[in-house]
Amino acid sequence: MSQHLGLVVAMDWGGTWIRTSVIDGRGTLLWNIKIPTPQHTDKRDMLNAAENTLTEAFEWCGTDSVIGMGIAVAGPIDTETGIFYTPPSLANLDGVSLKHEWESKFGYPMYIGNDATLAALAEYHLGAGLSERTSGRGALTLLYMTISTGVGGGVIDRGNVLMGAHGMAAEIGHIKIDSSESAPICNCGGRGCLESLISGTAISGHARNILKSYDGKTTLSNDLLEPVTAKDVFISASHGDAVGQLILNEVVSNLSLGITNLIHSFNPDLVVLGGGVTSGLSDAGVLDSVYQIVLSSVMSERHKHFKLMEAGLGDASGMIGASLLVRASESVKI
Fold first, then answer.
1. Which residues of 241-261 are buried (b: 16+ CB within 10 A; e: fewer)?
2. Residues 72, 320 contacting (CB under 8 angstroms)
3. Is 154 inside a domain boundary?
4. Rounded mean pLDDT of the chain?
5. 229 and 264 assigned to the same domain
């Protein structure tokens, strides 16, 4: 194989999928594997499944130069120690240190970060942010939000990652949106979090709860063997289904409120949305409605100076961000 400015083995581990890739210095995925995140099992089975993908990646690299490992994970994780702290989407890994598990085993330096934070880094340098700057438009402060199994985020300000004291900043899925006593309970244990209202998991659960007592006409099924998904909800809404439209409208409202709060907190000039639910909202044609609601809700004209767009790197953003983290830490030119 040709030289690739040094290779990085990168992983993006979320509540639904484990993605592992080998990435070169230009951010190109040379090899990758994607497996489901093990469900309803113990932490050792989960760790073994993820570890096996890393082993395959290193085997693929052969004698090519590997400069390190980059790991993007869902949920709060200490970036120095690699220890999980009550991760909602990977609950069985609470207290586990990935650095302890893997760094000495594979013999390469490991750098770890929140998956959405690292996706934000990738989008800033190589995705939506790069596209905006290349076009002569602004992208000084990028706010990234992933809406998938859970909801996460990251903020990049003038190229610098907002990390927080312990590398756990921008857990935007857990800002409080609904303070009522009937607000849904989130995986984090709180009530009324943004994640509990707009994630794919939340949309599916909300649909099932409505269908339990709904006696009107609907195209949505409450079959326990094939639970309704967020995608099902969005498709039904596009066909005029009353239940689907009700849920879609609630998602649009709650997402708009969440983004409005984040605009006031971080004053971004670029808001980038990623994840499977975002794709569904885009297909449903409602992202412009979200944008218009936010514009009508922010506190000043200057806060309106932002662009809302979809992620440019798709599912690869977390892994690419993890590879950039390794290169920055190893002082290798991106």
1. bebbbbbbeebbbbbbbbbbb
2. no
3. yes
4. 92
5. yes
